[in-house]
Specification:
127 residues, 2 domains, 6% strand, globular
């Protein structure tokens, strides 16, 4: 289910977060669905439970999941309207990066291809 690259410059907890977000956005993980326990996921992925806990904590802070004490972590319902400010902020950041990309010699078609790859690949790795 998860593909973690231990040689990547991206921290393992961030890789896990991004993959979980992708599963939630694509509705593979449904709202109110229980996530694997920290312990079981750590055993499955053979990584430190603290790494899983950090991912879950950050996902909760960002509003992607919620935790019920003694019961576990669950997928939060997507609140597209409630995230309008965050979406506007991200759009501004993306626009700045796109302008920088074009300025440095990237083409519009390269951006389109890259976005298509992001949409088609779970991890969104660059090719």
């Amino acid at each position: 289910m998860f593909k973690l690259d231990t040689r990547s410059r991206v921290a393992i907890y961030e890789q896990l977060m991004e993959q979980l977000k992708t599963l939630m956005i694509r509705e593979v993980l449904q709202k109110d669905e229980q996530l694997p326990s920290v312990r079981s996921l750590a055993q499955e992925l053979t990584i430190n439970p603290n790494t899983i806990q950090k991912s879950y904590r950050e996902l909760e802070r960002e509003g992607f999941i919620y935790t019920l004490p003694g019961k576990g972590s669950f997928v939060a319902p997507l609140k597209r309207d409630a995230n309008k400010d965050k979406l506007d902020e991200l759009q501004e950041e993306i626009e700045k990066k796109f302008k920088e990309f074009i300025f440095l010699g990237g083409s519009k078609q390269e951006l389109i291809d890259w976005l298509s790859n992001l949409e088609n690949n779970e991890g969104g790795e660059r090719r």
